[in-house]
Amino acid sequence: MDWLRAVDGYCERAGPEYWAEPVNALTNLGFVLAAAILWPRMAGLGVGRALSANLALIGIGSWLFHTHAQVWAGLADTPPILIFVLIYIFAAHRDFWHLSPGRAFATTLLFFPYAALTVPLFQLLPGLGSSAGYAPVPLLIAIHALLLRRRAPATARGLGIGAAILTVSITFRSLDEPLCAYWPQGTHFVWHLLNAIMLGWMIEVYRRHMLADGSPRR
Q1: How does 94-103 read in b/e, with b if 16+ C-beta sit within 10 Å?
Q2: Is the terminal CB of the chain with fewer CB neighbours within 10 Å at N or C?
Q3: Using one digit for the tens of pLDDT, what is the confidence trace for 109-133?
Q4: E strand or H helix at 136, and its extent?
Q5: Is residue 17 part of a domain?
Q6: Nearest C-alpha neighbor of 163 from the set 180, 179, 147
Q7: What pTM was computed for the model?
Q8: How many domains, in total, are found in the chain?
Q9: Which residues in 131-164 are b (16+ Cβ under 10 Å) and which e?
Q10: 136-168 pLDDT, tens per residue?
Q11: In contact, 170 and 135? CB cutoff 8 Å
């Protein structure tokens, strides 16, 4: 594999230069800012701290991808997102559903067959393109919100808000290329900003649940 091969996947990029995507690059600071705000609020919550640190890594990885725009930078971009999803699923199963850590870990692994089954279905929807790979996540969040509405209604509402924000965010991501001829700036930067808000909100939902639940598991 040519790790230094240039990648041009976004409307804003018009050349190979480092600053060819200034808006897409700089909006990644939203992730770092959200992580900095959340970090002190997660005192005593190990999972909350892990999610906050990972949120900063998402911003850094995406920054690298939208500046260097090479294959290796693409690999720095996506793994932190997947890791965030897996940590949150584990935390939800352990702390929202009160599963043992072992069972929570085992059920977290079910995300992989779930994604393998649902991504091809989302790929059938016109216009989603590569964003189909993210579409199973808001669906999964919405499922948890629906199932938690009686056990933990405040948490369920918070998850529902997160799912709605992510759905709008994915929509803007998928519109980047189709609208490129009409809006050369592209819409990918909105995906960054909304995701920084959404992921930060999801961490806050977890914190509020833990405070309300009074669970000793941190």
Answers
A1: bbbeebeeee
A2: N
A3: 999 999 999 999 999 999 999 999 9
A4: helix 136-147
A5: no
A6: 147
A7: 0.95
A8: 1
A9: bbbbbbbbebbbebbeebeeebeebbebbbbbbe
A10: 999 999 999 999 999 999 999 999 999 999 999
A11: yes
